[in-house]
Amino acid sequence: MFAPRLKYVLLMLLCLTMFSVGCRSRVPVQNTEHVAVPQTRSGQTLNEVEDAIIRGATAKGWIVNKREGNIIRATLNMRNKHTVVVDIPYTSKEFSIKYVSSSGMKYQEGKIHPQYNTWIENLRKSIYRELGKD
């Protein structure tokens, strides 16, 4: 008599657990600010920094567009479901990565899906790796 109810309750608990695991909560947007450009023996020119940012971003699947001033706009489209747009202002001494917009990332009041911060950290590492090449 209790077995069918117990099975039903256990099945409902399992479903609720699986649902809650799939719904990751939003986290604060992490902008990357003032990352120092590694200096080579001859220093880094503005054009070398720009080229490294473009190479680093495209290596991770970002589409880049040069903006006015020393800003590169980068867009990442993931599986036609998620889009992220960032601006990358830079000088010969530093660069930053700043959130512009997104879709499919549950952005609201400065919080976003946690995958965003992972993509931004991967972008930062890729750019930094390119900057370190002689």
Describe the structure.
The structure is a single chain. The chain is of the alpha+beta class and 134 residues long. The protein is 39% helix and 29% strand. The strands form 2 sheets. Strands 2-6-5-4-3 form a 5-stranded antiparallel beta sheet, with helices on one face. It has a two-stranded antiparallel ribbon with strand order 1-7. The N and C termini lie far apart (75 Å).
Key attributes of the depicted protein:
134 residues; alpha+beta
Radius of gyration: 21 Å
End-to-end C-alpha gap: 75 Å
In total, how many beta strands?
7
Note poorly predicted spans. Answer: 15-22
Largest sheet: 5 strands, antiparallel
Q: What proportion of the residues is helical, as a percent range?
A: 25-40%
Number of discrete helical segments: 3
Order of helices and strands: HEEHEEEEEH
Q: Strand order within the widest sheet?
A: 2-6-5-4-3
Shape: elongated
Give the overall average pLDDT: 86
Task: Return the structural class.
Answer: alpha+beta
Give the percentage of residues in beta strands. Answer: 25-35%
